Amino acid sequence: MGQEPRTLPPSPNWYCARCSDAVPGGLFGFAARTSIFLVRVGPGAGAIPGTPSFRVIGELVGHTERVSGFTFSLHPGQHNLCASSSDDGTVKIWDVETKTVVTEHALHQHTISALHWSPRVKDLIISGDEKGVVFCYWFNRNDSQYLFIEPRTIFCLTCSPHHEDLVAIGYKDGIVVIIDISKKGEVIHRLRGHDDEIHSIAWCPLPGEDCLSINQEENSEEPEIPNGKVIAQSPVTKGCYLATGSKDQTIRIWSCSRGRGVMILKLPFLKRRGGGIDPTVKERLWLTLHWPKDQPTQLVSSSFGGELLLWDLTQSWRRKYTLFSASSEGQNHSRIVFNLCPLQTEDDKQLLLSTSMDRDVKCWDMATLECCWTLPSLGGFAYSLAFSPVDTGCLAIGAGDGMIRVWNTISIKNSYDVKNFWQGVKSKVTALCWHPTKEGCLAFGTDDGKVGLYDTYSSKPPQISSTYHKKTVYSLAWGPPVPPMSLGEGDRPSLTLYSCGGEGTVLQHNPWKLSGEAFDINKLIRDTNSIRYKLPVHTEISWKADGKIIALGNEDGSIEILQVPNLKLICTIQQHHKLVNAISWHHEHGSQPELSYLMASGSNNAVIYVHNLKTVIESNPESPVTITEPYRTLSGHTAKITSLAWSPHHDGRLVSASYDGTAQVWDTLREEPLCNFRGHRGRLLCVVWSPLDPDCIYSGADDFCVYRWLTSMQEHSRPPQGKKSIELEKKRLSQPKPKLKKKKKPTSRAPIKQELYDGNEEDSMRESAGPVENGSVSDQEGEEEAQGPELPCGVASAVSREPVICPPVSVGFEQPKVTVNNKVTLLKKEPPKEKPEALLKKRKARSILPLITSLDHRSKEELHQDCLVLATAKHSKAELNEDVSAALEERIHLGLFTDRATLYRMIEVEGKGHLENGHPELFHQLMLWKGDLKGVLQSAAERGELTDNLVAMAPVAGYHVWLWAVEAFAKQLCFQEQYVKAASHLLSIHKVYEAVELLKSHHFYREAIAVAKARLRPEDPILKDLYLSWGAILEKDGHYAVAAKCYLGAGSAYDAAKVLAKKGDAASLKTAAELASVVGEDELSASLALRCAQELLLARNWVGAQEALQLHESLKGQRLVFCLLELLSKHLEERQLAEGKSSSSSYNAWSTDTEGPLVERITAVWKSAFSLDTPEQCQAAFQQLQNIKYPSVTNNTPSKQLLLHICHDLTLAVLSQQVASWDKSVEALLRAVVRSYDSGNFTIMQEVYSAFLPDGCDHLRDKLGDLQSPATPAFKSLEAFFIYGRLYEFWWALSRPCPESSVWGRTAHTGTSAEQSQQLDNASPEERDPQSSQPESSRPPEPDRRLTEGSEQMLNACKELFSEKHACLQNSQRTVAEVQETLAEMIRQHQKSQLCKSTVNGPDKDDPEQEAGQSGSSSQSPCKEEKNEPVSLPELTKRLTEANERIANFPENVKTWPFPDVLECCLVLLHIGSRWPTRVTQEMQQQAKELLQKYGNTQVYTRYCQTFCM
Fold this sequence. Notes:
5-stranded mixed sheet, flat, 35% helix, single chain, 1510 residues, alpha+beta
């Protein structure tokens, strides 16, 4: 595959007339999101032989929004140039060889919708936009021309291949025009006939109109529509055909000489063949065309369902077409096709490339009309990657476009053998997990909380679990069933499916019965472990490979380790303090089985921690253990960790994915970064190691890409820091910004993101051709703008035209403001003098009976007539005649003077008038006068017009009416979003619970608690629920202190302390520890106080650290450790050593006394400051500290952490000496020395000896007394390390003109580390000599005489280092390590050779295959024998067995305690002897050579054997 990683690119953009193009020679480009991806096609692609000849070779990055057009320059010698247009308003010209922008313009003011590079003019690019503006741009002379032809939306444009000035433009409404750009865009032809969007325009490849036998006289179903003026027959207009494809389902062929249509081809409705399309979806259409250059009588078009048609244009009277790929099923696109572009390869094959809504790019052979290859792509973030443990090489990809893809990565015939699964998904796929043993069984989880199971071998829709998560599914895992699913009778599945959702629950699903209810495992955890506090919100699940242990990651950063069958909590890891995103257990099939207890975890805080849980799991503690120290710490990423995966091919090798845009490979055992992949342009979301190739990793990101990359090809070894990470951020920021709807900020982690062009897209974007969200955002913003002016003005703004007097509220209140500000206001906006009068008129009370008042103000005649009618009605004894009745009905205002019925009619008419004029309050008053209060309340409630006054009067109508009215008013207030007022009204009718629930449901927690506290019993559970609910919301929003108060109010003190500690700073931790101590949570208090002290330790605040530890008696031992660490740091600072240097340290008063030996000062301070007087107190402190175990160290362990661990061992040593337990003291001292030795920090090692053993080890030997003491082997090792240090000190002193007494301690140990001998491998004696870079000594130089006198004594002591049993043990251990490495290398080479064979011995793989044929014992070995003689597998196995047997036969006390490398000491002594022969006796040199000859047969020492022993 060469240097380029294999890419699964983003999907080509939809609904663009031209956003893909190709040039002869085999380069194809397509627009995807904001980039253009380039694909090399044909023999030059460098694909693996036997697979289709194409390869994604790069990306053009620069646009900031969706690319809407892309076109190559088809001029010879200029095929490297192309142009693109984008929604960001720019047109860019690119050089594809350098992948850089040559030039660009931003002439368009509106969205660019069409683009074409003129096939006749080398430097002319023509573009059109949605408002009808066309720009011609000549980039060589940086000149442009503006043309405005029609005020319509341009959909496509194509330049004529025969005349440089002709351009055909298609519009959204179906019009097609041909313009002449040399005549300022004069319209040559206006072609009418289509009645919908023009999707594509293709010119006939041959000039003239002789290529088609169309009878020009024949009326081709369409009248001639002239342009409105007679056009002279010029060579320009004469002789060419034009084809157009439209959304109206027709293709029309037009004659340019006549300006009319000559042929109509109507698309056929084809019977769908095997295409996976949802039958409920309405048929879409995009009609794109391609007129083949060498076949002018044929035309290629797209069709309804993704089929491609080859039309025969020779017989215009009948529809004749050939289907592409007619013989083979499933080769066609399954959705509409957007672009077709021809490509001629280097070997002269005529190909056609198509892009489609089904997210595939297909290549067709025009000779056979068959599909040559398919390039699949992604339409959303790549959220999840998972390799099948059963179907080797099958990679499942979960993406944000609602599809699951299964990629057979080892397919011999096809590099991109991908199957798509979309049925039943309908949402972003955020989690995937294959069944460990069942073929084709794939579990998936989605953004909307769905969990399902796919059988990837069948075409059936998936089974969906009936239990949904409330939020995004974060992770899935297969594990053994736990109660209640593991209980009961009958058959049970051996494995059940566990899912973790964004709401914080973990559900257990029965795969045999997904329709049944899934179980929340929190209930089992609570019952088994008798937990009384709130369980943490779970964010990640991971089962150990043996299925006996499950790890749960939580939102607060803790990780819980639980044991089957009842999920007993055995351990809590308090390491991360932010949301845990990823947990991964090491595989079980490595060369070291104990590594399967390693668990890596990553969170939102960028540091990866690895824990070794072997001791905890095997000890199976009664009560849960809390772990606060990691086994390994991997620091380097600069943003949150999203995914982790262990290499199945190596021991302890891990890959991590991060939001910093990179994937990082680590050697966890050495805490060493190995390589860093920076190919993505987005934040990484998932990563997985290839199960076949040890060098190959797949990663997915929010740039819609999945990359396959090789670790050996990466130029960087660690994530970018500083400037580099800023550059990477800029690269990522060039991605499109998701346009979020205005809604609540999601509180969950990575998967909940808005994506561009995402979703299943079945019913999403078309008209906008942009993100689905765009429309809704603008709508919402528009609504808010419309509401803006209404807020202060209310209804009055519609009535009053004068903005100055907008507020309708009492003007009396406004006037003082005017008076106060009259200097400003009256000068700027002095209202006209009439306005106060107008205002006074407006303030006059509105009449409640306006109609009858107006009727009483008519003409005198009318009023006189009223009197006569009224008199007749009042004084007529008999029945009123019809005329009088009619007259009374007309004069309703007379109801005031007649009977009640007439009055009611009058009130009714007046009331209707008030309602019509928008004055319901006057209507209500009338009804009240009438006495119909109940009716008033009902009608007001129906209209939502209840008021305080009406409700206040409701009791007049009765108690029940009042209750009903208050409830109705409360509902109305809720609709008006006046929730607090609504609750107050509910309280007035004693509906306390309803009022509290109303306030709670609308997040008025403070008010709800106040009401509940005031009106309910203190023990009412509602109150506790309120506190807990509010606390959870505050915690999520980061208001930890208020949340803690809520938890305290609810009586959940444990949760209060936990939430206070969440911020992780020293002040919060101290408060949390104090709180936990007050409420009696001693264990929690102790762990928080220790965390606080460690935080303060990092800031070198020794006083604060001691104060924090004072909080708890159980931390007295830690106080001693911190005290010793402070004194040692002060000691190192005085000695001017780097480990003790600090910019600002806050030391305790007792550390200022620097007189006397360090150990004596330590014990004196312990007595004075900590009252450590009696042996019993020392013994108690020793017991406290002895139970704390720190992991071993590596070269990469931070120095502060190293110092703390060493001081822990030194504290144990000093405490042991205080109680005269010398054997424990020796062991603790040795552990401290070995830690500094393993870390390669020999400065500290020497300081430990000079401070704690200033006179050597003799006094310890005296104290131990009996040589049979159990501590004797430990003492021997301690003494050996002491001599080992003296040996190096002596060697370096000899190399120096002015020796120092503490030379060795002052020098960085250049040659040795945990792998001392391997470093020696590359160093000559001269190289290993320290150069003059040491700082000045703080001690006076000693005379050379002392060196001479002491040398013999020291060199005699070196005999202690020549321990044959240790040399033999170390040799056996080296043999085992080398054999294991050789075996691992052989396996890797074998896998590579298998891959080579499967790809028919491809040229790219020849070298690795030849290497694989060589010895597994590394061809770099300096030994000639090993170079020439490959070692067989049985031979290696025999060596391994023999070495293991030898190791097993050694006594335990020899194996338990480390010893300096014996052969290394031999070499140093021989180096000294070779340069200063008088210094080393012949006897010692001989003994060293013998040991080298006997045990130097491993690769590390072979060369030295040849040097010294030949």
